[in-house]
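Journal club prep — side note

Before the paper discussion, L.F. wants everyone to see what a predicted structure for a comparable chain looks like in token form. Sequence:
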Amino acid sequence: MKNVLILSGSPRKGGNSDLLCDEFLRGAQESGNKVEKIFLRDTKIGYCNACYYCKKSGGKCAIQDDMSEILDKMQAADVIVLASPVYFYSIDAQMKAVIDRSVARWTNILDKEFYYIMAAAEDGETVMDCTLECFRGFAACLKGSKEMGVIYGKGVYEPGTIKGTPMMSEAYEMGKRA
């Protein structure tokens, strides 16, 4: 059994990347894993101030919000799923804030298996390149991280349009393998 943490960066509950997270979650739970999904919009996460208080305080951030708990969960997880809609060919602000605030304890987020979920209105070949590189860049900074899978939810804009697509079953199957 693995401890799976899903960070859903979608600003829309039931948005396409969020629905893909739900399918990944369902597959991972059915395989007997302990799974938690955090819908980032429902959390309070401030922006990193680059004050580096965290360096002088053993990873405790000067900002008192939900990020400390999220970092605890990231450290405890075996598997981390990062999910974001594509915003101007990149990740959205909710996910970027989490990545930036991870500076407080990034050296303690070790040996994680990563899955990446993205959804975009466009379906062009390169529409998700930068988004994926943002995820990969974060994981590359974390010692022992391994990329295990990527879900490309292309050509979906209105909430729910991803339902019934092969991408949903792909997310479910990927979750089962987590």
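L.F.'s comment for the group: Helices lie at 16-30, 53-56, 67-76, 93-101, 129-140, 166-177. Keep this in mind when we get to the figures.
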